[in-house]
Amino acid sequence: SDIQVILTIDFAEAVFGAEKEISLKKLVRCGKCQGNGMEPGTQVETCKICRGSGRITTVQRTIFGNMQVQMPCTACAGEGKIVTHKCSACHGNGTVQEITNLKIKIPAGIDNNETIRLTGQGEAGQKGGQAGDLYLKVRVNSDRRFERDGFNIKSKAEINFSQAALGDRIDVETVDGLVSLRIPDGTQSGKVFILRGKGVPHLSGRGYFGNAQGKRGDHLVEVIVKTPTNLSRKQKELLKELGR
Ligand SMILES: [Zn+2]
Ligand SMILES: [Zn+2]
After folding, report:
1. Any idea which ligand is nearest the CA of 37?
2. Where does 147-243 sit in CATH, by number?
3. 13: how many CB neighbours lie within 10 A of its CB?
4. What is the 4 CA–ligand 1 centroid distance (Å)?
5. What's the confidence (pLDDT) of residue 26?
6. Is the ipTM above a cut-off of 0.85?
């Protein structure tokens, strides 16, 4: 059957992808009996009730006369065979619970609440049946420096009053490290600057973005102008000058 596991990753791991090793407890095929539920070295017996056919025929008397009705054999559950010695490791289920370690490749650009499906990595089916799938629901830890908006990353940068008025160069933290940004003179608080290609890589092979492999979103920096506090008398005089 299918299983779902929550996988928590960091902001940067979601942006650039990562390899993670997880450990989970799940039902796997019993190694002792290879999943058939029989103690190794023992034989199955042919069901004596149905003589191996798995079905029994009864005769029912009806107003139209005697009718033959076929039904599944209850003694062998319709299988025609009876396991006389159940596997001692799995009690005949064909599965045992085991801790499994899995290496998982997280694709770059994955977002919070998205799911990775691993076919056949779910729990083993009973009596050698097909295994289900493993669904990894991704939770991305928030990062106090960045905020994600689809393929774009947003952040805020504080500048002081004179940088806003006269212009300057500041270093902006991005997922690629520090990037130099030119602040033009006369910049207002709340102005958003775009650092092209410094955002989240587009996941490859999915719909609209399928042929956009290698493409990345942008980093949007909102500049906040800090109002000066604790000014000296001289600084206050200068500002008064500006206010005229
Ligand atoms: Zn077994
Ligand atoms: Zn039978």
Report:
1. 1
2. 2.60.260.20
3. 18
4. 25
5. 93
6. no
Q: Which strand (E) or helix (H) includes residue 98?
A: strand 95-106
Instruction: Kindly identify the ligand whose nearest atom is closest to the C-alpha of 74.
Output: 2
What pLDDT, on a 0 to 100 scale, did the predictor assign at position 234?
A: 92
pLDDT profile of the chain (244 residues), mean per 10: 94 93 93 91 91 90 87 90 91 92 91 93 86 95 95 96 94 95 96 95 56 77 92 89 82
Per CATH, 3-34+89-140 and 147-243 having the same topology is answered yes
Q: Are strands 3-9 and 134-140 parallel, antiparallel or unpaired?
A: parallel
Q: Which two tokens stand for residue 235?
A: 């600084």
User: Which residues lie below 8 Å from residue 227, measured CB to CB, with a gap of 6+?
Assistant: 161
Q: Report the separation in Å between the CA atom of 165 and the middle of ligand 2, taken as the mean of its atom positions.
A: 91
Query: What does the domain layout of the chain look like in residue ranges?
Result: 3-34+89-140, 44-83, 147-243
Distance 164 CA to ligand 2 centre (A): 88
| 19/141 Cα distance (integer angstroms) | 16
Gap from CA of 57 to ligand 2 centroid (Å): 11
Q: Rounded to the nearest whole angstrom, what is the distance from the C-alpha of residue 90 to the centroid of ligand 2? A: 23
Distance between first and last Cα of the chain? 76
- For residue 194, the model assigns a pLDDT of 97
Q: Are strands 44-46 and 115-118 parallel, antiparallel or unpaired?
A: unpaired
CA of 44 to the centre of ligand 2 (A): 12
Alpha carbons 133 and 156: distance in angstroms, whole number: 41
The CATH class of the 3-34+89-140 domain is mainly beta
Nearest bound ligand to the CA of residue 95: 1
How far apart, in whole angstroms, are the C-alpha atoms of residue 86 and residue 190? 72
